[in-house]
């Protein structure tokens, strides 16, 4: 079976392998192959390789399948549930003995994991952070990579969901270099940084001071600090200082985004796209958001709903959705 591989001269093979491994992009289901002085490294996400390597040569290649890895389930009598975030594994277990057994199995497996964290509370407070039990590792700070961007963050101080990587990439692909983009709830920069990497001038606002510090660090890490302004404040206070500024606005605060639509309209320029995130019942997941946007922006703007997109299932009969809405004055 052919799989996408990065092809590189043998003398550059180890440095390339290390860079791809550090970004968690190597497809562990296949062996690395060597032929005619070149090395073929199977990769899981060809698009992201371009953000890690300079002008990578990606070719289809038949390479041997790797012998089965030892996974946590192989060491337990059940299939554990966990999320990967960088070199951390996140679990959600109330039973201390079960949590300990899962953590030990994860560490003994072939997964590239150094830290295991168990959720110790629900998401809480204005900054939507939670408590964690550190079962393995030194602290709750992790490095996460997605689609060629690198994010440093501390899960105890900021909110971050790796499950939304595909959605963030969907939006980022719409961004062009001449845009002015405003993220009203920016967090550590998972929208702002890829927007800036595409050449947009970006402003990210968040009420959490720790998130803003990580946003500034992540802008530096990704070489876009000159195109990113990070502001620690309530966006409703900030908006009046950027009236008519934005060509694109991200409103990723499901359950509460509607409370900030007046500020979004203040920020919107003559032709502006808003990415409005909402959580609603499956019977009418898009209607409440569309009606709220129209109520806030009409008649000053002509409203066109360009995309009605389901991001994921949030809870039984509830959907996390996004409306891509164009406002033309």
TrEMBL record:
Tell me which residues make up the SAM-dependent methyltransferase TRM5/TYW2-type domain: 82-329
Membrane-crossing residues? Answer: none
One annotated GO molecular function is: tRNA methyltransferase activity
Q: Name one GO cellular component term.
A: cytoplasm
The alphabetized UniProt keywords are: Cytoplasm, Methyltransferase, S-adenosyl-L-methionine, Transferase, tRNA processing
InterPro entries under this entry? Answer: MeTrfase_TRM5/TYW2 (IPR030382), SAM-dependent_MTases_sf (IPR029063), TRM5-TYW2-like_MTfase (IPR056743), TRM5/TYW2-like_N (IPR056744), Trm5a/b_N (IPR040601)
One Gene Ontology term of the biological-process aspect is: tRNA N1-guanine methylation
Q: What is this protein called?
A: SAM-dependent methyltransferase TRM5/TYW2-type domain-containing protein
Which species expresses this protein natively? Natrinema versiforme JCM 10478
Taxonomic lineage from the root: Archaea, Methanobacteriati, Methanobacteriota, Stenosarchaea group, Halobacteria
């Amino acid at each position: 079976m052919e799989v996408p591989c990065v092809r590189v001269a043998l003398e550059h093979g180890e440095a390339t392998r290390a860079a791809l491994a550090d970004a968690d992009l190597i497809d562990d289901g296949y062996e690395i192959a060597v032929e005619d002085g070149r090395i073929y490294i199977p990769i899981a996400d060809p698009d992201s390789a371009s953000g890690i390597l300079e002008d990578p040569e990606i070719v289809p290649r038949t390479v041997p399948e790797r012998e089965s890895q030892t996974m946590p389930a192989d060491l337990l009598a059940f299939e554990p549930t966990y999320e990967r975030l960088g070199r951390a594994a996140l679990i959600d277990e109330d039973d201390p003995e079960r949590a300990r057994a899962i953590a030990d199995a994860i560490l003994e497996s072939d997964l590239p994991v150094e830290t295991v964290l168990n959720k110790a509370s629900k998401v809480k407070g204005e900054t939507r952070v939670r408590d964690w039990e550190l079962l393995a590792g030194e602290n709750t700070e992790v490095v996460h990579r997605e689609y060629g961007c690198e994010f440093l963050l501390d899960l105890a101080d900021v909110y971050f969901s790796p499950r939304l990587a595909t959605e963030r990439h969907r939006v980022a692909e719409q961004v062009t270099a001449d845009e002015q983009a405003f993220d009203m709830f920016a967090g550590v920069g998972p929208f702002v940084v890829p927007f800036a990497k595409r050449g947009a001038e970006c402003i990210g606002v968040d009420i959490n001071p720790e998130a803003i510090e990580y946003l500034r660090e992540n802008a530096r890490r990704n070489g876009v600090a000159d195109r990113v302004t990070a502001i620690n404040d309530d966006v409703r206070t900030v908006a009046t200082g950027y009236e008519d500024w934005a060509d694109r606005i991200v409103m990723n605060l499901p359950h509460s985004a509607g409370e900030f639509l007046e500020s979004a309209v203040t920020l919107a320029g003559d032709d502006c796209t808003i990415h409005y995130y909402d959580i609603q019942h499956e019977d009418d997941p898009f209607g409440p958001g569309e009606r709220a946007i129209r109520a806030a922006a009409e008649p000053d703007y002509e409203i066109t709903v360009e995309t009605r997109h389901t991001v994921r299932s949030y809870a039984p009969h509830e959907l996390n959705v996004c409306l891509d809405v164009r406002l033309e004055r």
